[in-house]
Automatic annotation (TrEMBL):
The protein's name: Probable periplasmic serine endoprotease DegP-like
Residues covered by the PDZ domain: 273-337, 396-489
Top class in the EC scheme: hydrolase
Binding site for substrate: H125, D155, G227, N228, S229
Keywords: Hydrolase, Periplasm, Protease, Repeat, Serine protease, Signal, Stress response
GO terms for MF: serine-type endopeptidase activity
Organism lineage: Bacteria, Pseudomonadati, Pseudomonadota, Alphaproteobacteria, Rhodospirillales
Cell location: Periplasm
InterPro entries registered for this protein in UniProt: PDZ, PDZ_sf, Pept_S1C_Do, Peptidase_S1_PA, Peptidase_S1C
Length: 499
């Protein structure tokens, strides 16, 4: 997680206040519109109803221990030093003592979603690597829990407890229905205190904090501190609309910026963990990047939106469907893809082996294809997400003088340049040998050793191909031109301004 963002198993705080300032009025003006806080009145009845469904979670993990007969390494001293005998005798006495194995303990929160079967939801990072998990009910009843399944990509885990003790469950709500400004309650176990209730509002939606590939967090100003991780965030109907997970803080303490996994994402993961013990996500087999205004303009797109396909997995679902590098995915299974990071979530939520329509922007117009969704976990197990291995072979292209354009110097790929820049044997294109300082290419991050594969969505094999494509784009009065660039197997599109 990026600097400044911490799991809520590390902190939680609420800055909740309501101050209503009214302008000066005459004696006749006695009616003042009630504040939202006054309309709510009190959260006491709601909190009393929800508290029994929220649990504390305690985990223990055994600390590493020396094997029997194993002695720590004695510090090295000069031969005959009195310290040598002293430390040897000290370590021998320590070894003879029967020391109990130490255990690391951590605390978190969770909530019961199925009272009959004893299912409890929490964060993955609360129970990760735990040897023993204990669920503590509101009345301090301790119950050993079984880990049903966990998912590191969304930080969700599902536990199961068996008990004759009566349990209270809470339902998932619709997180998509939540609006910025709506009231929420957060209940959890901050700092091990147990059963703490805080209130706040939804501060923002669809936050990306670089915690995982499916970031879509709800942001709140309700207090979230250490121990609140895995606890529920409720709407005023008593439905779980989020799982408290992280805070943003420059210092590590709460500053009123907390993040919760939206329920609509979590409940799909929970359903898969319950059925399979693991997740089964849809997989498209593409590597994507954001569509910038320059990229949109260079491809003749009215406005930047969608996910730009930089490369495809050979024989993956997208490749089999006819998707091409350079396509911009604008719709998937009827759902609009407004920005790049929406596509992975939409695909992940699609059923395995389901045939769905995918709309792409290709060479100035929309094209609709049919794709059969694959399984992400199966692709990971088969190593299909990794870059392809080199196939060998040598390039016999003769060395040529570097050509200048777009603030770049580039030339044909020679065996010497392949070795110098670690270019794959089967890679075709032209290699960048120098980037002019303060040029648009430098601002876009191009470096010596990058291989230009396409210019204007057309393949290039020699420097003359690049210059002719650039000249053609200028004649068409384009403001920028799109390059497909490879850097040690990492493909990406870069739009370079032509001014």
């Amino acid at each position: 997680m990026k600097a400044g963002v911490f799991p809520a198993a590390a902190a939680l705080l609420l800055a909740f206040s309501a101050v209503v300032a009214a302008p000066a009025v005459s004696a006749a003006q006695t009616t003042v519109a009630p504040s939202r806080a006054a309309a709510v009145g009190s959260f006491a009845d709601l909190a009393e109803k929800l508290l029994p469904a929220v649990v504390n979670i305690s985990t223990t993990q055994s600390a590493p221990q020396r094997q029997p007969g194993q002695r720590p390494e004695v510090p090295q001293f000069p031969p005959g030093s009195p310290f040598e005998d002293f430390f040897r005798d000290f370590f021998d006495r320590q070894q003879q003592q029967d020391q109990p194995q130490r255990k690391a303990t951590s605390l978190g929160s969770g909530f019961i979603i199925d009272a009959k079967n004893g299912y409890v939801v929490t964060n993955n990072h609360v129970v990760q690597d735990a040897d023993e998990i204990t669920v503590i009910l509101q009345d301090d009843t301790n119950i050993k829990a079984e880990l049903v399944g966990k998912d590191s990509k969304t930080d969700v885990a599902l536990l199961k407890i068996k008990t004759s003790h009566p349990l209270v469950a809470v339902p998932f709500g619709d997180s998509d229905a939540m609006r910025v400004g709506d009231w929420v309650l957060a209940i959890g176990n901050p700092f091990g205190l147990g059963g703490s209730v805080t209130a706040g509002i939804i501060s923002a939606r669809q936050r990306n904090i670089d915690a995982g590939p499916y970031d879509d967090f709800l942001q709140t100003d309700a207090s979230i501190n250490r121990g609140n991780s895995g606890g529920p965030m409720f709407n005023l109907n008593g439905e779980v609309i989020g799982i408290n997970t992280a805070i943003f803080s420059p210092s590590g303490g709460s500053v009123g910026i907390g993040f919760a996994i939206p329920s609509n994402l979590a409940k799909q993961v929970v359903a898969q963990l319950k059925e399979y013990g693991k997740t089964r996500r849809g997989w498209l087999g593409v590597r994507i990047q954001a569509v910038t205004p320059e990229i949109a303009e260079s491809l003749g797109m009215p406005a930047p939106k969608g996910a730009l396909v930089a490369s495809l997995t050979p024989d993956g679902p997208a490749a089999k469907a006819g998707v091409q590098a350079g396509d911009i995915v604008t719709k998937f299974d009827g759902k609009d893809i407004g920005e790049m990071r929406r596509l992975p979530r939409v695909v992940a939520e699609t059923g395995i082996d389901k045939a769905v329509p995918i709309e792409v922007w290709r060479k100035g117009k929309p094209v609709t294809l049919q794709v059969k969704v694959g399984e992400l976990e199966a692709a990971e197990e088969q190593g299909l997400l990794a870059a392809n291995e080199d196939k060998g072979g040598k390039d016999k292209a003769p060395a040529q003088k570097a050509t200048e354009s777009l603030g770049l110097k580039f030339t044909t790929i020679t065996p010497e340049l392949r070795q110098q820049y670690e270019i794959k044997p089967d890679m075709k294109g032209v290699v960048v040998t120098e980037v002019q300082a303060n040029s648009a290419a430098a601002e876009k991050g191009l470096k010596a050793g990058d291989v230009i594969i396409e210019v204007g969505q057309e393949e290039v094999r020699k420097p003359e191909d690049v210059t002719s494509r650039v000249q053609k784009a200028k004649e068409q009065s384009k403001k920028s031109i799109l390059l497909l660039v490879d850097r040690k197997g990492d493909l990406r599109f870069v739009a370079i301004p032509l001014s």
